[in-house]
Specification:
The complex is a heterodimer of chains A (490) and B (494). Chain A contains 16 helices and eleven strands. Chain A is α/β, with parallel strands linked by helices. Chain A has a domain of 327 residues: Alpha-Beta Complex (Amidase signature (AS) enzymes), CATH 3.90.1300. Chain A is globular and about 65 Å long. By secondary structure, chain B is of the alpha+beta class. Chain B contains 15 helices and 16 strands. In chain B, strands 1, 2, 6, 7, 10, 11, 12, 13 and 14 form a nine-stranded mixed beta sheet that branches. In chain B, a hairpin with an 8-residue loop joins strand 8 and strand 9. Chain B is elongated, with a radius of gyration of 29 Å. The chains are: A alpha/beta (490), B alpha+beta (494). Chains A and B meet through helix 10 of A and loops of B. Chain A: This is Glutamyl-tRNA(Gln) amidotransferase subunit A. Chain A: Heterotrimer of A, B and C subunits. Chain A: Keywords: ATP-binding, Ligase, Nucleotide-binding, Protein biosynthesis. Chain A: Pfam families: Amidase.
Chain lengths: 490, 494
Amino acid sequence: MTDLTSLTIAEARAGLASKSFTARELTDAHLAAIEAARVLNAYVLETPERAREMAKAVDEKIAKGEGGPLAGIPLGIKDLFATRDIRTTACSKILSNFIPPYESTITSQLWRDGAVLLGKLNNDEFAMGSSNETSCFGPVTNPWRREGSNTTLVPGGSSGGSASAVAASLCMGATATDTGGSIRQPAAFTATVGIKPTYGRCSRWGIVAFASSLDQAGPIARSVRDAAILMCSMAGHDPKDTTSVDIAVPDYEAAVGKSVRGMKIGIPKEYRLDGMPAEIEKLWSEGAAWLKAAGAELVEVSLPHTKYALPAYYIVAPAEASSNLARYDGVRYGLREGAKNIIEMYENTRAEGFGAEVRRRVLIGTYVLSAGYYDAYYLRAQKVRTLIKKDFEDCFAKGVNAILTPATPSAAFGIGEKGADPVEMYLNDIFTVTVNMAGLPGIAVPAGKDAQGLPLGLQLIGRAFDEETLFSLGEVIEQAAGRFTPQKWW
Amino acid sequence: MTASAAPHKLIKGATGDWEVVIGMEVHAQVTSNAKLFSGASTAFGGDPNSHVSLVDAAMPGMLPVINEECVRQAVRTGLGLNAKINLRSVFDRKNYFYPDSPQGYQISQYKSPIVGEGEVVLELDGGRTATVGIERLHLEQDAGKLLHDQSPTMTYVDLNRCGVALMEIVSKPDIRDAEQAKAYVTKLRSILRYLGTCDGDMEKGSLRADVNVSVRKPGGPLGTRCEIKNMNSVNFIGQAIEYEARRQIEIIEEGGAIEQETRLFDPNKGETRSMRTKEEAHDYRYFPDPDLLPLEFSQAFVDELKAQLPELPDQKKSRFITGLGLSAYDASVLVAERESAEFYETVLAGLADKARDGKLAANWVINELFGRLNKEGVAIAASPVSAAQLAAIVDLIGEGTISGKIAKDLFEIVWQEGGDPRVLVESRGMKQVTDLGAIDKVVDDIIAANPDKVAQAKAKPQMVGWFVGQVMKSSGGKANPQAVNDLLKSKLGI
C-alpha cells in the first residue's frame, strides 16, 4: 500500500469510497506521521484518541452508506478555532489553560461532513505575525530547506502550523485564518494552496478574534481541488455571525478544471516593487503566460492606492485587536496573575500573558484610537481602506475577472532572521493586505521555486463571492507549474 | 423650543438671582425577554450568573447578534418622544477595563444613534407646561454587578444584568429647576410605561438618571457643569439638584470656579460629593464595532410600529378633557400612570351612560378609589373594588338610584366585603326614596318643628339647604335630594 498520507483529499475520498482503506487506517497513518514530525512543532496539541474515535464512527457511517462529503478525511485545526472540550489557546500564554465548552461554526461544519480531528495547529500568538515565531509554543519549522542547507526556515504566518503540517503531510488539509495574509503567505512559503475567501463567506463564530473586520477563515491544502472541497464545507451563512453573508454556497469543486478561456486577468502595475527579486518577477510573468496560454486575456490594471495599504492595515488591525483582546483580563478564564488590587491584576496578567508582538500591537491600537489621534490615524486609515476597495471595484467594473500578483516578496526566510525590525516582518504582507482591506477573496497557488530551491507562490484576487473563478484559474497555474513536495528530512 | 419660556424658580445668591441649567441622561432598561446581543434571559433576581450566555461572558470568538425586539422598542420609544427615527445607525465600542464589563468594552451608539431629536411636554403646578428637547436616544449594553460583601479578600462578579439592553435618552439642557427635572423624569417614565418599552421600576434600577447641573446668571452664558451619576429616585434628583446648584453658586460667589467633574449624591447626607474630575476621565477610544454591521431598517418598518403605537398620556389626556369634559387636573391625574388610566377606561367601558357619568366616574376613581388605595398603601392592580364594581356604583348614582352619600357607604361595603353593588343596594335597602308621599310627612314635621327657620328661609331662600340636610338626615340619606329640594320649596312657598 502506498503511503496514505501522501494522498490528496480527492484521492483519499475515492480510496475510502472504494474501501481500499478505512478512515481508521488513514487516520492512523497521519497520527504516525505527526509523531515522527514533532521536530517541526506544527501541532501544539495532538488528539489521537479523539481522532481514532471520530474515524471509527465515520467508518461505521461509510459502511451504512452515510458518509458525508469529508467522510474520514483527517484534518488539522489552527489553534484559533474553538474546539469543544479541547484546549484552544490562540498560541498565547494568556489562554494556555482554556478549554472551550463550545465548537466553532466552521469546525462543527467539518465534523458534520465527516472530517476527523488530528489535533490543534501552531500559529502566531493571536494570529499576529508572519513567521509563526510569536507563538507561545515556540516557532514552527518549514519542511522545506534551501538546497544543500540545514538552516531551519519559517513556514510563514500566522497559519504556519497549518501550512507546515499540510506540506509535510501531517494532515490532508487544515483550517487557517487570514487577517493580512496569514493563509496565503504561509501557503506560498510551503508550496501549498491557501485561499482567503471573501469577507463574510465563512462564519467567524468561535474563532479567536484578531481584527474582526479583516479576519476570515479558509483552508490550506495540497491541491486546488482539495482547497475547493474544504471550502464547500467551511463556507456558509451563520446567523450567529452577522457579518457572514446569506448567499448560497456554490459547488466550488465543479469550478476546478473549468475553462478560463476569455477571462480577463489584470496585472497591477503598482505591485511591481522597486528592488523586487528577479525570481519573483520571472514567476509572475510565467504565471501570466500560463493563464494566457489557457485562453485568458491579460490586461495591465492600476490599483493606485496600493502603497497606502500596508500602513493603513497596521492602523486598522491593531486598533481592532487592542479592543478584541481587552477581554483577556484574568477575571473569568485564562491566565490570572496575583496582585493586590484589580488594576495590578490586569497589568500583571496581561504583561505575563501576552508576548512582545501582541503587546506591541495592543499599544499601537490603543494609541491610534486615543482621543486626539483617532482622526489622524484610525479615521484616515478607514478612508484609505475605502479608496483601496474602490481601486478594485473600478478594475472589476472594466470587466477584469481576477488579478494576478506575486503572493510574497520573497521565499521563506530563516528562523530568527527577521526578528529585529518589526516593519521588515510586516513587509511580508505587502501583496496580501490589500485583499483583506477590500474584503475580497484571494488564493495563493505554488508556481515555482527560487534559485535555492524554495517554493514561491502566485496570488489571484477575485471579485467578491467569486471564489469559483479563483479555483478555475488556480488550477491552470497548478497544472502548468506542477506539484511541489518537500524532501523529507525529519 | 426650550423650557426657559416657562416660568421657573431662580435661586437667590449673595450677588443676585441664579438660574440652574439641567440636562439629563436617562438610562432606561428595555423591556424584552432577551439581552441586546445575546439570547440570555433578562429576568430580574435570578441566582448570580444564572442568566449569562457565552457572548455575555465574552468568551473567545463569541459574536454579538442584535435582538430585533430591542430595536423595535427603541423605535417605539423614539416615536413616543416625537423624535426623528434614524433608518441607519451604528454601534460603537466604548473601551474601558472593569470587571463588570467582560468584553473590555461596552457596545453603545456614539456618533450615529438610532433616534435623533424629539421632545417631551412637562406639566407643572398651576397648569403650567414646559417643553424639554430630546437630543438623542441610543441603544447600549448594561454592565454586570460587583459584589464586594461576599468575601473579605475578594470581589465577586454577577453578570446577570450584563448585556441587558438600555436606552440612553439624552435631553437638551432645557430643564431649569428641580421641579422641572422631577416632572421630566416622571413624564418620561410615564411615556415609557405607556409604550411598554421600559417598566420604569426605579427601585430595581430599570430607570436611572445622570443629571448635569450648571448655574448661570439669567440669560448669561452656560456655566461649567457637573454630572451627578446614577440617580434612581425622583425625589433624590430634586434634592441633588437643589444641593448642587447651591454648592456651585457658593463657589462662584466666593470667587472660585466650577471644575467639570462627576459627582455622586449621598441621600443620607443630602449632598453630592466628587467621584472623579475631568483629568481622571476615561479615554473611551470609541470606534465602530467591527462585529456588527450598521443597523438599517426601512421607513415601512417604522410606519408599522407607529401604526401599532398605544395612545400616549398627552393624547389620552386631551381626549378625556374634550371628549368627557374632565378638568385638566383630573385628566392629568388619571393619565399619569398607565394603570390608573387603564382602570378609569375600564370603569368608563362599564358605564351605562358615559356622556352623563364620565366625569362622575373620574371623581370616584380619583377621590374615593385612589384616595383609599393611597391611604391603605394598596396598588391599583390589587384594588379590592374592581373597575366593574365601581362602574356599577357610578351607574347607581347617575341613574338616581342612590345618593352620593349612600354611594360612599356602598363603596365601603364593596371594599370590605365585595359583592355586586346593584344587588347590595336592593338587599340592604339602600335605594334612594323618590316617592314624594314617603317623605311628605318628614318634610311637614320638620317645617312644623322649626318655625324660626321657616321665617329665615322665606327671607333668605338659600336657607332651604338647612331643611334639605334635615330631611336627608332623618331619611337615612335615602331621600332624593333634588326631590326634597323641590318639595321644600313648594311647601315653604319660595
